[in-house]
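Q: I'm building a small set of examples for a reading group on sequence design. Run inverse folding on the following structure and report the sequence directly after it, with nothing in between.
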């Protein structure tokens, strides 16, 4: 498994410049590299339909999408457009692998505040989907 997101070399360079921008202009600490945030969101989107982690892991994984949203809002538009295009592909994959329940399933485990659309979705299949339906893993 690679530790780089699915993107071109040119896009990867843009992501790296976004990390530097965020570190020098926005974040108060080092923050996660933007390319790692994207990689983590890509992995969540790829595995959401058969998510094998627990509910806490799933909710934590969604925070990477939160961070990407902040980066897209704060970075210069030309760079943000590159990231938006890359994130959009994973967003569509995530939507296809999950169902919108208005946040009902996740709100049992997370207190919503300023909730983004990805918190209204939950896996409909796989171990986590089963758990959310029945309260039991692996049945």
């Amino acid at each position: 498994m690679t530790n780089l997101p699915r993107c071109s070399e040119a896009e990867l360079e843009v992501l790296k410049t976004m990390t530097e921008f965020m570190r020098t202009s926005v974040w108060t600490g080092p923050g996660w590299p933007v390319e790692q945030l994207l990689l983590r969101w890509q992995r969540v989107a790829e595995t959401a339909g058969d998510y094998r982690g627990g509910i806490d892991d799933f909710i934590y994984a969604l925070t990477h999408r939160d961070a990407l949203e902040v980066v897209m809002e704060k970075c210069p538009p030309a760079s943000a457009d590159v990231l938006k295009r890359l994130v959009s592909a994973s967003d569509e994959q995530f939507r296809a692998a999950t169902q919108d329940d208005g946040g009902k399933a996740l709100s049992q485990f997370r207190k919503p505040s300023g909730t983004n659309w990805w918190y209204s979705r939950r896996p409909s299949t796989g171990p986590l989907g089963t758990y959310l339906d029945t309260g039991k893993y692996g049945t």
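The radius of gyration is 16 Å.
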